[in-house]
Specification:
- It is a single chain.
- The chain is of the alpha+beta class and 181 residues long.
- It contains two helices and eight strands; from the N terminus they run αβββββββαβ.
- Strands 1, 2, 3, 4 and 7 form a five-stranded antiparallel β-sheet that branches.
Length: 181
């Protein structure tokens, strides 16, 4: 059986979806890159709270959106925990464990309408313009093997947990999805 037509079609679709995924994520010229989006909204004292994590040139930010549909001012208080599972090689024997990046409490008095609050989770170090794929060492030559090894790293995984009570640990690493609490 000759199934070259099916193979060519599958490879074309895979290449198109990969390219489209890179454009959707924002790996082009945009300064803000979404890393984690809200899976739902939390309701605190009749106010709606959603959160997301964004990467910017200055660092990684947790962005909370608040919506107060009532005319009265409302007080809200909640705890948050931002965690990151670092990138690893797919050939490593051990899976990477998530690390808590920042943990804190937010207390706000919300007026009627929508409000946004941004919290810096982690600053990024400025990169010198002279660094290349050889990490700035002129004696190293960037071969295809070096570039291929760098591309095979799994991406880091960010998560943001919001809770009314104190958050005691990171949940959901390994084969278990994060638990909603």
């Amino acid at each position: 059986m000759n199934q070259s037509g099916t193979f060519v079609f599958a490879m074309t679709v895979t290449a198109c979806l990969t390219f489209a995924g890179r454009m959707v994520i924002g790996s082009g010229g945009s300064d803000v890159r979404p890393l984690a989006k809200s899976l739902g909204a939390a309701t605190l004292n009749e106010c709606r709270v959603t959160g997301r994590i964004e990467s910017r040139p200055q660092g990684f930010y947790a962005v909370f959106d608040f919506e107060n549909p009532t005319a009265a001012d409302k007080d809200i208080k909640f705890n948050y925990l931002a965690a990151c599972t670092p990138s690893t090689s797919p050939l490593s024997r051990m899976a990477a464990f998530p690390e808590a990046v920042k943990k804190g409490t937010i207390e706000r008095r919300l007026n009627s309408g929508n409000t946004t609050e941004e919290i810096l989770l982690k600053e990024t170090a400025p990169v010198a313009p002279t660094l290349t794929r050889t990490n700035g060492h002129p004696g190293l030559i960037a071969t295809g093997a070096v570039v291929k090894a760098a591309m095979e790293m799994t991406p880091e995984i960010w998560s943001l947990v919001v809770s009314r009570e104190a958050i005691k640990g990171i949940r959901g690493w390994g084969a278990v999805n994060p638990a909603a609490f």
